[in-house]
Amino acid sequence: MTYLGLKGELIKKGAEAELYKVTFLGLPAILKRRVPKPYRARELDEYIRRTRTAHEVTMMLHARACGVPVPAIYDVDPDEGVIVMEYIPGPTLRELTSRGVDVKPIFRLVGFYVGRMHRGQVVHGDLTPANIVVPEAEKPFFVDFGLSERTGELEALGTDVHLMLRALESTHYLKVKELFNSFLEGYREVMGARAEEVFKKVLEIRRRGRYVEERRAKVR
Amino acid sequence: MPRVAVLGIESTAHTFGCGVALDDGRILSNVNSTYTPKVGGIHPRESSQHHSSVAPQVVRRALEEAGLSFEEIDAIAVTLGPGLGPCLRVGATIARALSIVHGKPLVPVNHAVAHIEIAKLATGLEDPLIVFVSGGNTIIASYSDGRYRFFGETLDLALGNMLDSFAREAGLPHPGGPKVEELAQRGTKLLRLPYIVKGQDISLSGLLTAAIKLLKEGCRLEDLCYSVQEYAFDMLAEVAERALAYTEKKELVLTGGVARNRELQRKLRIVAEEHGASFGVVPPELAGDNGAMIAWTGALAYKHGVVVEVEKSYVKPRWRLDEVDVPWVEG
Lengths: 220, 331
Hints:
The complex is a heterodimer.
Chain A lengths: L1 E2 L2 E2 L1 E5 L3 E8 L2 E8 L7 H24 L7 E5 L4 E5 L6 H6 L5 H16 L2 E2 L8 E2 L7 E2 L6 E2 L3 H18 L4 H16 L1 H16 L7 H4 L1
Antiparallel strand pairs in A: 1-2, 3-4, 4-5, 5-7, 6-7, 8-11, 9-10
Helix pairs in contact in A: 3-5, 4-6, 5-6
Chain B lengths: L4 E6 L4 E8 L4 E8 L9 H23 L8 E7 L3 H18 L3 E5 H13 L5 E5 L4 E7 L2 E7 L5 H11 L7 H8 L12 E2 L2 E2 L2 H12 L4 H27 L3 E5 L6 H13 L3 E4 L9 H13 L28
Parallel strand pairs in B: 1-4, 4-5, 6-11, 11-12
Antiparallel strand pairs in B: 1-2, 2-3, 6-7, 7-8, 9-10
């Protein structure tokens, strides 16, 4: 694929977008392109790709302004569904966790930065270990803000944290407790008392799901 | 172990069903009777009364068609949940009685697991990403370490429930899903509705509210049916695609009553193809709630020693899919 004469090597084909490793003005960069979805009606498809691309860039800048590590934006073209951004070398937190590395300190940092995001009214919207890149001996970088929201509502914050918990349960369920506790530790550090409210919300969201054991007591 | 024959009883919601399955995957019979409300949706009490009245003949016919007597049955399987309490209790009561009278072990079956197992049996897929959509369920799941685990689900309404509710508002008879599908084929204009994907989950209640509002404003019903399906199915397809990319499963299976919808099948087939995964759909006669799926899942469970004492065979209206160990699935 080429964009602005950039030729790149496809490094990841995600569900929504393709990632290419390119060189942009001499810098190693990632070109993210939201591809058209053949199963969607064309109008809806174009609308979703255009708005999500523009929105993602805006939200990455907001997150950066909150002091959260996110790749720097180099260029954007919403009509093409293209974002060019800084290349962050390293495995995703999901890969790292599966390797059996002690990731508890990283989860604490993740919680800390998510706290910063939430304090700054940035809700990631797809907060899973697969969307966090961890360069060697450095802080975790957050990517994939396509589903993020600009809000400070408890419900949205809770949904974000709930998603992290769910992602841990679905792939790293043996370590859920310790990793999620580390996450909460870092989160509390920034959010203070508000963290408990968010956590209460997480439990409430969990109960709201269909057929949840915890819900029985309330129903009877 | 010699051949095992299991009689399965289903009574989760509007269908009372009974089937007989062998452990080699043969379905010997599948007899079902569905309660259709005269007005509105499923009334749990009326549905349970329907179940009580048809149960004896349904069970008898299932045995007749299978060509077996109770002596030749090895175990009685029954759905204990999730579902509507009054309906579940009818099936459970009958299964307990049969278990005691004929001295056969009782096998507890989770309704969602049964929809998954019957789809795997019918399609031949072994370790698929599962899209389970029905009147009461909208689940994207896959097997991992001993259980089927959730990847995503609806945060509010189930897909089938949403389609039926919309159809009801539009004056279409129950069950409305198939009617919506029919009208949608004549839709030409895509109306703007809320598209809500939250991470791995979808939300359908806002879509229903907005669609009803447009309906009352006089929008053409065909266009609305088309748009409602388009939005709802695209949301589901997007989450399914994300799940496929995330779990890297090489198979995708569609099961549950709404699996009969051709447009949904088309979209999910494309999603599977895009990710190099094979795609399978549960056949129509096994898509909705049925007795055969309980019998087959019961056979799998029974062979792995899953039984329950009659005294402890409580119904579990909120028995979640990921609470169930499935020792018969190979990791």
